[in-house]
Amino acid sequence: MPTLNIFTNIPVDAVTCSDILKDATKAVAKIIGKPESYVMILLNSGVPIAFAGTEEPAAYGELISIGGLGPGVNGKLSETISEILQIKLSIDSSRFYIKFYDSPRPFFGYNGSTF
């Protein structure tokens, strides 16, 4: 159930969006060690964002997972997601924040119940 929610101030066309969703799904699944079938990626483009007082290209992400997170994994996720955003949207890694949440099972719902 890892869920990555990305916000960016860059408008993203459908093809680029699809590429980012696919690349991020593979990366999150591999790094956390969970099947791709459990991973959800959301990409919110064209969102007004000011970072360091400017509206230059920037992004913010939140990754929620039940387990699988920790200092080493989080560092690798941050590095890999920022690389995807750099390659696909030309967002410099210095203009990207990502927050990690390790959620208890009862705090995440799925299929009409909780994990």
H/E series, N to C?
A: EHEEHEEE
Mean pLDDT: 97
CATH C-level label of the domain at 16-49 and 66-100? Alpha Beta
Q: What's the total count of β strands? A: 6
CATH superfamily annotation of the domain at 16-49 and 66-100? Macrophage Migration Inhibitory Factor
Could you walk me through the main structural features you see in this protein, from its secondary elements to its overall organization?
Its EC number is 5.3.2.1, 5.3.3.12. It is an enzyme of class 5 (isomerase). The chain has 115 residues and is an alpha/beta fold. It has a domain at 16-49 and 66-100: Macrophage Migration Inhibitory Factor (2-Layer Sandwich). The protein contains 2 helices and 6 strands, in the order βαββαβββ. The strands form 2 sheets. The chain has a 4-stranded mixed beta sheet with strand order 2-1-3-4, covered by helices on one side. Helix 2 links the parallel strand 3 and strand 4 (96-102). Helix 1 runs antiparallel to helix 2 (71-89). It is globular and about 40 Å long. 24% of the residues are buried. The model has no long low-confidence stretch (mean pLDDT 97).
